[in-house]
Amino acid sequence: MQTKRPDWLRVKLPGGEAYHRMKSLLRTANLHTVCEEAVCPNIGECFGQGTATFLILGDACTRRCNFCAVAKGVPSALEEGEPEKIAQVVKQLGLRHVVITSVTRDDLPDGGAGHYAKTIKAIRTQDPACTIEVLIPDFKGSENALEIVLNESPHILNHNLETVPRLYPNVRPGADYERSLSLLERAKEIDPELTTKSGLILGMGEKHDEIIDVMKDMRDVGCDILTIGQYLCPGKGFLTIKRFYHPDEFRHLKYEGDKMGFRHVESGPLVRSSYHAAEQFKLTPFGQE
């Protein structure tokens, strides 16, 4: 087991005018980002470029994934004005591509799907030219909830598998590998033109063959974009890091993914779900129009 971070995982401390402007806008509007809640290592780069992944449905998750730094517990009531506040900040920042994600809300009848739909609508009302990516939970397998989101036509639908099936009971208790895979498959069935996306984090005990098998599973259900990054333990009480992958290993996985036919593979130690999301969108047929 390795505990000391290698040189390729070191990042600069966040700062700069654009970074502090983003922080100020978010605090003034009382909005959350997964960048902050999940302690993302790229927060300085992304905030500095005026990009962020907005976290809706509160800041407390009803599940207890053992790799994730987002707070767990009893969620607060939905903030009805949140979609409009996000739309206003998106307009203020002049974002051309926005990512919307959430905590998992198993306490809500639709898992929060309606709130996603309202947020997409609000952003389109403020700025019809802004492209929208949603990173959704599994909605406990509800096809109706998935359709509520897809009826608003997001440009990219992302749902992360996160890890290999064998590790699900320890890494993602409350989640189910086949259910998550089926969500990606059903999304394509509902809208064959939709760009779908998923991601893996490595270093929690998976084997190389297992990684390749999951990548194949993703392609079998038509997943277009794949992100692969290194797991970084956010603190005490979380899963320990079993190993650090070298950048060359990430490059090899990108090579394997390209061979499988993914439209784009973003693979590297610091890659996260929304890292370079706007650039990834430009690589899709819709983004090239």
How would you describe this protein?
With 289 residues, the chain is an alpha/beta fold. The chain has a single domain, classed as TIM Barrel (Alpha-Beta Barrel). The chain is built from 11 helices and 8 strands. The chain has helices at 17-28, 34-37, 43-48, 82-93, 113-126, 143-150, 168-171, 177-190, 208-220, 247-260, 277-282, and strands at 32-33, 53-56, 97-102, 131-135, 156-158, 195-202, 225-230, 264-267. It has an 8-stranded mixed sheet with strand order 1-2-3-4-5-6-7-8. β3, α5 and β4 (131-135) form a beta-alpha-beta unit. The radius of gyration is 18 Å and the shape is globular.
Output the number of helix runs: 11
**Looking at the structure, what is the overall shape?**
globular
CATH homologous superfamily caption: Aldolase class I
Tell me the strand order in the biggest sheet: 1-2-3-4-5-6-7-8
The profile of the biggest β sheet is:
8 strands, mixed
Structural class of the secondary elements?
alpha/beta
Determine Rg (CA atoms, Å).
Answer: 18 Å
Short structural description:
With about 290 residues, the protein is α/β, with parallel strands linked by helices. The chain has 11 helices and 8 strands.
List the topology elements.
Blueprint: H1 17-28, E1 32-33, H2 34-37, H3 43-48, E2 53-56, H4 82-93, E3 97-102, H5 113-126, E4 131-135, H6 143-150, E5 156-158, H7 168-171, H8 177-190, E6 195-202, H9 208-220, E7 225-230, H10 247-260, E8 264-267, H11 277-282
Helix pairs in contact: 4-5, 5-6, 6-8, 9-10
Key attributes of the depicted protein:
37% helix, TIM Barrel, 289 residues, globular
